[in-house]
């Protein structure tokens, strides 16, 4: 409980003709019904508090004039019932938590006995809001009009822009005209010093464009060569907000807990900040891509390649291609070498989950920065000195790396349920060749409570770096390919005949890198701890937002 001395304002104000004690401190706005009325004497009077950090805006009714939103019933009620002067009322908009991590904008209108008191309240709340650090004032918004169900523009205009306007955020909106438009604009053209953050309206592929533009720009500005896999990258200072309008939207789902444009807009307005690990992918010392969610070879690579040809099917393309690739049952031979995450707390088999304010992420970050200071070296070379590379050879149906859980509506616990958003590691999941039945068991476990790693043909390692070399690159690949020559087809059909029950061996798959296809099979992957930041706070624990007095009808 706060002491009364810390209160900035205390008044008796009315909400819908009922008198309330209303108080404002540096952290809370509280209103509690006056119990003097005989009508309420025997009812519990719990009161209602809203943290200042969750107030979106305050407005005096005078400001609204004729532009007031049509369905604002609280304002109408004041005029109809009380017939009071609307200039003596002010409305506070704040975040209300709903089921399944969704947020909505709630409003409460207070009427005041006189105009001066009313403006005193508006001024005081505004001063407190202005003193909150980290809220964006100006945002650069990129909309992919072709992502997901092609609703990006509509979602932004109808659900997000009105909230940004209400919160007094100015925006520059760019509707992309072609693939990589946003990436190239961020790389070279955008005047980033004018903005407090970047907003991405689209799916994981669009988000990937944004981080490629931002990370590249930051490295060039800091004099870092992005082509060198051993360079420690410079973290991006601008935060990124994701308004989900794609097909999978797993980065939004895994960092907010839901794919809902209004919830994401509210996290942006409140100025939330969630650091994220990013993997860089290189091939022969040439930079290929960055990844924050799924980096998948074999099954998920093949699903993506196949589904890109079926874009016209919309969201169903992943299920159709998924079923097709499941039946095709290709496996791939190669070598995976990895550097285990040594000293880091947590394993991929933990039952605990990465949640808002995650202690594991914080702990691992502290360990890393302590080490970096001690040895005056960058994090990766430190890890490499400490660690030992391990090697696994074999035939794989899938090789997946997940920097985060990759939770999404299709798999609410994700590819690696215990992965952390910002611990500097990625979970490397190796699914060895097995029967279709067993692979189906593994896949199905992504959708229920059973452990998808508790199967003899699946192994999972928490790593900071890994490399993959397909079998035909292991020796002198050119020579080998030459030797194979025209007899290649014959050999493969032979392999297919040799393994009728197990599917078919193919030389190469492609990597699915956050929903974008990578054609190089041999790659070198390194995790960069907390390279970017999102306007998010991680998934909140359910008890944090269970407010029985504040139910939200959805
Ligand atoms: C039998 C049911 C099995 C369900 C298995 C579900 C596992 C789902 C794990 C999903 C991890 C998703 C990681 C995120 C990847 C995204 O970055 C990326 C791009 O997103 P964007 O389109 O928004 O730009 N999305 C993707 O690559 C999509 C991957 C979707 C994979 C779907 C696989 C469906 C498998 C269906 C198998 C059916 C077997 C049927 C047997 C007769
Ligand atoms: N204006 C545009 N025209 C065509 N493609 C675009 C445009 N803007 C972005 N893209 C590309 O669209 C692809 C899919 O975008 P995304 O928003 O992730 O949707 P989805 O989740 O449906 O895949 C990305 O590869 C992105 O680079
Ligand atoms: Ca991680």
Automatic annotation (TrEMBL):
Start and end residues of each DAGKc domain: 134-285
Basic and acidic residues: bias regions: 65-81
SUPFAM superfamilies, A to Z: NAD kinase/diacylglycerol kinase-like (SSF111331)
Region (Disordered): 60-81
One annotated GO biological process: ceramide metabolic process
One GO CC term on file: membrane
InterPro entries attached to this UniProt entry: ATP-NAD_kinase_N, CERK_C, CERK_PH, Diacylglycerol_kinase_cat_dom, Lipid_Phosphate_FormReg, NAD/diacylglycerol_kinase_sf
Domain of life: Eukaryota
GO molecular function: ceramide kinase activity
Name assigned to this protein: Ceramide kinase
Organism lineage: Eukaryota, Metazoa, Chordata, Craniata, Vertebrata
């Amino acid at each position: 409980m706060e002491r009364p001395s810390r209160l900035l304002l205390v008044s008796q104000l009315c909400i819908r003709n009922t008198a309330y004690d209303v108080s404002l401190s540096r952290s809370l706005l509280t209103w509690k019904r006056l119990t003097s009325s005989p009508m309420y004497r025997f009812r519990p009077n719990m009161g209602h508090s809203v943290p200042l950090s969750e107030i979106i805006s305050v407005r005096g009714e005078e400001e609204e004039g004729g532009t007031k939103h049509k369905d604002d019933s609280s304002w109408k009620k004041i005029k109809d019932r009380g017939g009071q002067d609307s200039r003596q009322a002010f409305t506070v908009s704040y975040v209300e938590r709903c089921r399944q991590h969704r947020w909505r904008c709630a409003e409460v209108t207070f009427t005041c006995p006189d105009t001066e008191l009313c403006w005193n309240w508006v001024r005081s709340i505004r001063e407190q809001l202005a003193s909150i650090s980290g809220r964006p004032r100006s945002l650069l918004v990129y909309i992919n009009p072709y992502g997901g169900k092609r609703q990006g523009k509509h979602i932004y205009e109808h659900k997000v822009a009105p909230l940004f306007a209400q919160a007094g955020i100015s925006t520059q909106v760019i509707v992309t005209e072609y693939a990589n438009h946003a990436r190239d604009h961020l790389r070279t053209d955008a005047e980033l010093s004018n903005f407090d953050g970047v907003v991405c309206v689209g799916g994981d592929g669009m988000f990937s464009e944004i981080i490629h533009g931002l990370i590249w720009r930051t490295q060039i500005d800091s004099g870092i060569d992005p082509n060198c896999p051993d360079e420690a990258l410079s973290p991006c200072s601008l935060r990124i907000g994701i308004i989900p309008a794609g097909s999978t939207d797993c980065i939004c789902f895994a960092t907010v807990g839901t794919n809902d444009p209004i919830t994401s807009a509210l996290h942006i307005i409140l100025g939330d900040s969630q650091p994220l690990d990013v993997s860089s992918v290189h091939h022969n010392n040439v930079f290929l891509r960055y990844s924050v969610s799924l980096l998948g070879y074999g099954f998920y690579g093949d699903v993506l390649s196949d589904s890109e040809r079926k874009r016209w099917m919309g969201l169903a393309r992943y299920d159709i291609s998924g079923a097709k690739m499941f039946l095709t049952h290709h496996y791939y031979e190669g070598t995976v070498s990895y550097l285990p995450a040594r000293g880091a707390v947590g394993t991929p088999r933990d039952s605990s989950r990465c949640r808002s304010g995650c202690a594991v992420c914080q702990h691992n970050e502290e360990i890393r920065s302590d080490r970096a200071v001690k040895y005056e070296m960058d994090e990766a070379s430190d890890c490499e000195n400490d660690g030992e590379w391990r090697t696994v050879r074999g035939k794989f149906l899938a090789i997946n790396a997940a920097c985060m859980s990759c939770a999404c509506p299709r798999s609410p616990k994700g590819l690696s349920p215990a992965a952390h958003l910002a611990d500097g590691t990625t979970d490397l999941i190796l699914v060895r060749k097995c029967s279709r039945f067993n692979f189906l068991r593994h896949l199905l476990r992504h959708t229920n409570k059973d452990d998808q790693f508790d199967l003899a043909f699946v192994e999972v390692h928490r790593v900071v770096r890994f490399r993959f070399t397909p079998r035909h690159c292991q020796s002198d690949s050119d020579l080998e390919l030459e030797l194979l020559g025209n007899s290649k087809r014959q050999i493969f059909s032979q392999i297919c005949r040799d393994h009728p029950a197990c599917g078919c061996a193919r030389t190469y798959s492609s990597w699915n890198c956050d929903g974008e296809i990578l054609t190089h099979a041999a790659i070198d992957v390194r995790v960069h701890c907390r390279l970017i930041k999102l306007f998010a706070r991680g998934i909140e624990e359910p008890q944090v937002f269970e407010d029985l007095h504040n139910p939200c009808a959805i």
